[in-house]
Amino acid sequence: xxxxxxxxxxxxxxxxxxxxxxxxxxxxxxxxxxxxxxxxxxxxxxxxxxxxxxxxxxxxxxxxxxxxxxxxxxxxxxxxxxxxxxxxxxxxxxxxxxxxxxxxxxxxxxxxxxxxxxxxxxxxxxxxxxxxxxxxxxxxxxxxxxxxxxxxxxxxxxxxxxxxxxxxxxxxxxxxxxxxxxxxxxxxxxxxxxxxxxxxxxxxxxxxxxxxxxxxxxxxxxxxxxxxxxxxxxxxxxxxxxxxxxxxxxxxxxxxxxxxxxxxxxxxxxxxxxxxxxxxxxxxxxxxxxxxxxxxxxxxxxxxxxxxxxxxxxxxxx
Length: 318
Hints:
Number of helices: 8
EC number: 2.3.2.27
Helix content: 10-25%
InterPro entries: 7-in-absentia-prot_TRAF-dom, E3_ubiquitin-ligase_SINA, Sina-like_RING, TRAF-like, Znf_RING, Znf_RING/FYVE/PHD, Znf_SIAH
Protein name: RING-type E3 ubiquitin transferase
Pfam families: Sina_RING, Sina_TRAF, Sina_ZnF
Shape: elongated
Family: Belongs to the SINA (Seven in absentia) family.
Oligomer: single chain
CATH architecture of the largest domain: Sandwich
CATH topology of the largest domain: Apoptosis, Tumor Necrosis Factor Receptor Associated Protein 2, Chain A
């Protein structure tokens, strides 16, 4: 979809509409290298040398049973054993089916910190359960939430906010209410493409507002939804509403923002947001129904626990 044909007009907290012109962005190339060094908390003896023994010489990942070895004692993981055609990658001797039981026993005795210790995770795990934890660790880096390209950048929330602003040129706004007008000169051309991403800062948190067009089966639709820049537990502390309408009709949506741990596509394909059929969108646009003119308004609020009633009450952002 040609982003140059799209106009987005934004106003917040009673401010006048301000035109926002989307751009065709030339994204920088990013590269990241895995860090194999373990950060050992104070009071724990370094285990780097043992960790190096447990590192596969082929893929450099940590080895888990079965750990294989050749007749000369060189080890490698079971996945790489099939990739090297049964030849030791170190000495080129035939591998056979020898298990390195001693190294497997050593691994069982190890307790190591989560690899995201430097990002704040304080947990210590036995070697064989460490990997499972790291796959779901709340301190693991977040993926870039920008959906308009295959962006592989990861990092913490402050880093991603700067990345979205500086590299994706995403519009940033402060406040808990929003008022967007989306204009498209040819709404008949509906493709699987993201139209707009806007980041809002309120309650000391960041939220991503998505608006896009895509095919739902054979029907073209427009969809708006909100994602929370943080983990799933914290996302449940907030709610949001969206509204679109004209000519005496309106559609409304109220829900909980999804965490950016859930991919953009996962949220979109679950239909967890405000969905507008094209015919209804054109009806809202008025005129000759040949141009899309949608105004989407909304707000974000934080749910607070009422200690007396034991129920959640909305805390409206001032």
